[in-house]
Amino acid sequence: MTLLEFDHVSKIYSVRGAGQMKALDDVSFTLRSGQTIGLVGQSGSGKSTIAKILTQLEVPTSGEVRLDGTPIPRRGKGLRAYRQQLRMVFQDPFASLNPYHSIRYHIERPLRLDDVVPRQEIEAEVRRLLERVRLIPDAVIDRRPHELSGGQRQRVAIARALASRPRLLVADEPVSMLDVSIRLGVLNLLADLQREEGLGVLYITHDLATARHFSDEIMVLNQGRVVERGPADDVILRPQHPYTRELRAASPDPEKHFAAASGTPGGTL
């Protein structure tokens, strides 16, 4: 079992003309393979800073991140091996794919860089990954990102993330840029992949409805601190912290939200 530990991490930024800003304040959690944690909070709460630290785009001011008990290397082969184990699905499928390259190129690249399969099997693996995210390979493989819909692009981004056969995924607001009508399909795909592949998923969102629906555990982040955490139903249905109650009051009814998306009659929360 893969275990990611985010241990007493703080992050302070120096802001010109404004001094120092604490983006994270002593945040700790563990993420195991086969588990989905929903990280919930408003914009500016520190969610994306956690994602950047996990992907080593930022370095903690204090604290430590460990994978299977070993601190994350800062450079070299060790960092590359870590990044192969933890991949990210970005918020914006319009910006995360290079418009000048084909879908084939986007998925081939991590396969080649990480030596996932023998060279002669790369074409078959690209097609397998596209099928894995419910795309028809012949219909998309030689197209460029602008020729696909937003939902198709995000599925390609998920296939690219899976290409290196990671054990952990960080999904940073993966459906917020998509039309409401296709969000549920992409989230159901992520949930299916998480179960079938045994992935650990950190699902970052401001949407309590999807967090409850897709997460085993929820952490609520406010001004860089975790103010509440627990099983998803407990946090959403019986929030203890005033900030969580405010978020819940401002959110759509989760049952009605998913009923509307699926076209079925809604129930009560």
From TrEMBL:
<keyword id="KW-0813">Transport</keyword>
<feature type="domain" description="ABC transporter">
    <location>
        <begin position="4"/>
        <end position="248"/>
    </location>
</feature>
<keyword id="KW-0067">ATP-binding</keyword>
<feature type="region of interest" description="Disordered">
    <location>
        <begin position="248"/>
        <end position="269"/>
    </location>
</feature>
<dbReference type="InterPro" id="IPR027417">
    <property type="entry name" value="P-loop_NTPase"/>
</dbReference>
<dbReference type="InterPro" id="IPR003439">
    <property type="entry name" value="ABC_transporter-like_ATP-bd"/>
</dbReference>
<keyword id="KW-0547">Nucleotide-binding</keyword>
<dbReference type="GO" id="GO:0005524">
    <property type="term" value="F:ATP binding"/>
</dbReference>
<dbReference type="GO" id="GO:0055085">
    <property type="term" value="P:transmembrane transport"/>
</dbReference>
<keyword id="KW-0378">Hydrolase</keyword>
<protein>
    <submittedName>
        <fullName>Putative enzyme</fullName>
        <ecNumber>3.6.3.-</ecNumber>
    </submittedName>
</protein>
<dbReference type="InterPro" id="IPR017871">
    <property type="entry name" value="ABC_transporter-like_CS"/>
</dbReference>
<dbReference type="Pfam" id="PF00005">
    <property type="entry name" value="ABC_tran"/>
</dbReference>
<feature type="compositionally biased region" description="Basic and acidic residues">
    <location>
        <begin position="248"/>
        <end position="258"/>
    </location>
</feature>
<dbReference type="GO" id="GO:0016887">
    <property type="term" value="F:ATP hydrolysis activity"/>
</dbReference>
<dbReference type="InterPro" id="IPR003593">
    <property type="entry name" value="AAA+_ATPase"/>
</dbReference>
<dbReference type="InterPro" id="IPR050319">
    <property type="entry name" value="ABC_transp_ATP-bind"/>
</dbReference>
